[in-house]
UniProtKB/TrEMBL annotation:
Residues 19-87 form the HTH gntR-type domain. Pfam families: Aminotran_1_2, GntR. It comes from the Bacteria. In the C-terminal section; belongs to the class-I pyridoxal-phosphate-dependent aminotransferase family. Transmembrane segments: none annotated. InterPro entries: Aminotransferase_I/II_large, HTH_trans_reg/aminotransferase, PyrdxlP-dep_Trfase, PyrdxlP-dep_Trfase_major, Tscrpt_reg_HTH_GntR, WH-like_DNA-bd_sf, WH_DNA-bd_sf. This is Uncharacterized HTH-type transcriptional regulator RHOS4_30730. Keywords: DNA-binding, Pyridoxal phosphate, Transcription, Transcription regulation. Signal peptide: none annotated. One of its GO terms (molecular function) is DNA-binding transcription factor activity. It comes from Magnetospirillum molischianum DSM 120. Gene3D superfamilies: Type I PLP-dependent aspartate aminotransferase-like (Major domain), Winged helix-like DNA-binding domain superfamily/Winged helix DNA-binding domain.
Length: 474
């Protein structure tokens, strides 16, 4: 039986009158495989062709193919199309296991979350679980039945100094404080340095959590213009002259969302300007542990003027709500401890103890390496799948900054992707001024590389389709 005849036979079985169309297409595929109409290795028609033949929305077909893949019916091959899986048999289950909840939100593959990718290392996973058991055995009740000291115990601060020592040489425990996540650290620092109405410089595209904090504290954010290396020194200096900012908040390494990393010379220029105008710096180093050969953080180049915040959520685990904070000098430590006590209270003793355990026994190094390797593999998938030149990325980071060309708008593109079962985030939450037509894609939320590939294929197909052809309104 030829491909065309077989294709016609299963397409004619699609029930167009009952239930969601994407499920009807997937059901027809499954029925065709069970009946023997569709053999192993059979190539499905291109998504656009099928959408045209059926007179339906292109994104409906994209979602149908994604559903078929989720059930284990088909597999996609870059440049070759979508095929019935060779290992399929007529004894297959009616429905394959759905993606785990952390990769899906409301039935959507959530690429809007910027998570470190899940790695496949059973031995390391076992070690991580054993760490939890050891903490429980070594004093779990004590950890559960006491308050944590604001700023962390001496042992936790020593662990933080050790964790940061490769990036900030000579760091000692007396200059490290432990906070309940980066957001708690930013709140404590801002509460100590800033007042209502104060102006704060930040990149024109910046971390949404800091935007929310500024709004809550009624601070004014001043957007510093950006280029391929991050914030531009000339724009920062112009704002220092005209607006007298009280602080600068920035992410010099693997900037979120643009993926930019400041060069050493750029960092030195920014620091020189900040010193000239006496502007303290809040350095968000969430991604600083990921590069194999990192550029020195601002806190290493100018320790007397930088509040360094290094969370563990991107380098080790989002579940570890732990951030290590390094103030400019030891004299600021008591003030910052007071701010932590007043504004964010304590870090969970259990998560702080787990972080310390992983750092002290070397598990943290192993986790970081596993994340790096999985990140590199997923970046390679992105480079092979998406059209070249349409996005910015860094091989050592796990998010992409996708630039849209007219006539696509960011809102319409995000909406169409959601209709295909993929969640992304437009530029709006990051923008201090007019948002660009861009979308951030997180490579880590997909549970497997195959899931990521399928999602990026949908992104690629949508990029090459006009908005007017990707939606049907009746």
């Amino acid at each position: 039986m030829g491909d065309d005849v077989t294709a016609d036979s299963w397409i004619s079985d699609i029930d167009m009158d009952h239930g969601p169309l994407y499920l009807a297409i997937a059901d027809a595929l499954e029925a065709g495989i069970r009946s023997g109409k569709l053999g192993n290795g059979f190539r499905l028609p291109p998504q656009r062709s099928l959408a045209k033949d059926l007179g339906i929305d292109f994104t409906t077909v994209t979602r149908a193919y994604a559903e078929a893949r989720k059930r284990g019916l088909v597999e996609g091959k870059v440049g070759l199309g979508t095929y019935i899986r060779v290992e399929m048999s007529h004894t297959m289950p009616t429905r394959a296991r759905p993606l785990p909840d952390e990769a899906r939100r409301g039935g959507v593959v959530d690429m809007s979350m910027n998570l470190p990718p899940r790695f496949d290392d059973p031995d390391l996973t076992k070690t991580m679980r054993q760490s939890l058991a050891r903490i429980d055995g070594d004093g779990g009740l004590s950890l559960l039945m006491r308050y944590q000291e604001p700023g962390g115990t001496h042992a936790d601060r020593m662990a933080g100094a050790h964790y940061l020592s490769a990036r900030i040489p000579g760091l000692t425990a007396d200059r490290v404080l432990v906070c309940p996540g980066a957001q708690g650290a930013f709140l404590a620092i801002a509460g100590m340095l800033l007042n209502q109405g104060d102006a704060v410089c930040t990149e024109a595209l910046t971390y949404p959590g800091f935007r929310s904090l500024a709004s809550h504290m009624k601070m004014r954010l001043l957007p510093v213009e950006m280029d391929a290396e991050g914030m531009r020194p000339d724009s920062f200096e112009a704002l220092c002259k005209s607006a007298a900012p009280k602080a600068l908040y920035c992410t010099p390494t693997l900037h979120n969302p643009t993926t930019a990393t400041m060069s050493l010379s750029r960092r030195e220029d920014v620091l020189a300007i900040a010193r000239t105008y006496a502007v303290p710096i809040i350095e968000d180093d969430a991604y600083g542990a990921l590069p194999y050969t990192p550029i020195p953080p601002l806190a290493a180049l100018a320790p007397d003027m930088v509040y360094h915040v290094a969370s563990l959520s991107k380098a080790l685990s989002p579940a570890l709500r732990v951030a290590y904070v390094v103030p400019p000098d030891s004299r600021q430590v008591p003030r910052l401890v007071g701010a932590i006590r007043a504004l964010t209270s304590m870090t969970s003793p259990i998560t702080a103890a787990l972080a310390r355990e992983w750092i002290e026994n070397g598990t943290a190094v192993r986790i970081l390496e596993a994340i790096r390797q999985e990140t590199a593999a997923r970046q390679q998938i992105a480079r092979e799948t998406l059209p070249p030149g349409c996005f910015s990325s860094d091989p050592e980071g796990f998010h992409l900054w996708l630039r849209l060309e007219a006539p696509w708008s960011r809102g319409e593109f995000v909406d169409r992707l959601r209709g295909s079962g993929i969640g992304t985030v437009p530029s709006d939450p990051f923008a201090v001024q007019t948002p660009p037509e861009c979308v951030r894609l997180g490579l880590g939320a997909a549970t497997t590389r195959a899931d990521l590939t399928q999602s990026l294929l949908s992104v690629r197909d949508l990029l090459t389709t006009l908005p007017s052809l990707s939606s049907m309104v009746i």
